[in-house]
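Quick start: read one record
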Amino acid sequence: MPTITRAVVFLILALLILNACTTPAKPETVSETETSTETAAPSLAVATDLAVSEITASIATAVGPTGDVSIAGQITENKTNAPVPHAFVQARNNQGMIITVLSNQHGEYQITDLVAGRYSLSAHGFGYRRSLTEIVEVEASSPQTVHLDLSPQTDIASQVSGAEWLSLLPDSDETRQFILDCQGCHQLGWPRQAYNGWPTAAQWETSIEKMHGFYGPRSGFPIIGPMDIPQTAAWLARYLTNDAPPPRPLPIAPEAQAMRLTEYDFPGIGPHDLVLDADGQVIVTGMFSDDMYALDPATGEFTRYDLPPNANPRAVEIDTQGDWWIVFGNPHQLARFDPQTEEMVTYAIGMYAHSIAIDAKGNAWANGHFKANPGQVVRIDPPEGTTQVFDVPDNNTSNLTGLPISYDLRIDANGVVWGSDLNWNRIYKLEPQTGEVTHYELPNSTSGPRRFDFDAEGNLWIPEFSGGRLAMFNPTHETFTEWATPTQNAEPYVVKVDQARNAVWIGYAAANRVARFDPATETFVEYPLPTPLALIRHMAVDEATGDVWFSYHHVPTAQDMVARLEVS
């Protein structure tokens, strides 16, 4: 697959987003579609750091044995020679793989279990520029020692995440509604970069009017609710000023020291959802490139599966037969794809769905992302190809404006269907046998429940996107328990539960971090990510190893990646 520059990707993405939001969908009847497959070597895209303009080039790497193949050394400040703790140390090969570890309190680091060959090695950290790049040749049973120097970065504003910038806004429902309406696709620092400083009230108004036209209530993709645009623009300009000192992130916790992160350059556009198959491959949707990918974690190789034009694949799940069930957004379809034969069957569902779930009988369920009065959930019976639609009454007891914005959809161990309404601040339970629906509103207003998961006891663990909290809902007692995330305004987007280890993982949209919550001790550990604008939309947990998988996709595109986090 040809290498695509980031500028071209950005342009393509912008056009695809506009097309996705304005092109009316045309539901199709059940049909079989042939797909083409190609093996894609990931793009040799350059590694970038917002703090510097330096470009780190990828170096050709020979495939070789693993074992005692490692690089170790120390990270120090160039003027004082003082050790730099918690610096990101990165080794990159030409397979599009970047392995990152943290230096310890003495500035020491070690990257182990490498494949023999050449790597480009560099380091960076908060408050420092990226180091010069060292070219390192590593061989089996011959560990390499490389020391790197870092220069202090005077202007840290470019290194601050969206979560820190959001702390400049008041702690209020107005801020939480702004997060709901305007922070689902990009971090708050992005406008500051685009305008080379915070926008004026007039510039904010122009930008918001444009976004409201694309995604407002009268658009084809009404994710943003009604808004007083001049008032919102003036409010932002009042608090986000160029003389406001950049807030600093929380210190990195000692418990995060042993993390190892492997990032893979994504060859498509818009990795939205991912899931692990039985062979250990990572299956990823290319939402804006209209294709699917299977990643081999060991080699970093992506196999691409072509989809019909304008398929707009959002969500994916794998059934017990190994087939992929995919949400096709724009065509208003679900698709069942056999990766062995590459045969696909599509099912018209008459709605733009957001999420998909498979029940114990093999039925596929999906929710209408923008359906209201009533909302709708659809069930597909694959052998018969029959469709049944369940109504979800609005039951808007809090008189909230805009649409409910149906978001996640999950099925518990008893076959009960659960969903979340992002904008209307609630979850709901659907009994498939009777069609009865029960709503449960979250304790705090404008919390924004997004993508949740179940633990072994059947409790729901819910990320409160705009509320900045993790919630647990006990369906037996019908009670909520909430915990504030360590990083304020981190925008918890997705939760996955590692049932084997009783750990709750949270993917943030705004903080460039991933969090782990221990229900037994009620404590968090946040793991920092080296890539700026790392907006996480979906996660998967490998129950065998405890590794956590997720993808980054920021709009406009900064750096689309799939990532694996390993912790001790």
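The first helix runs from residue 6 to 22.
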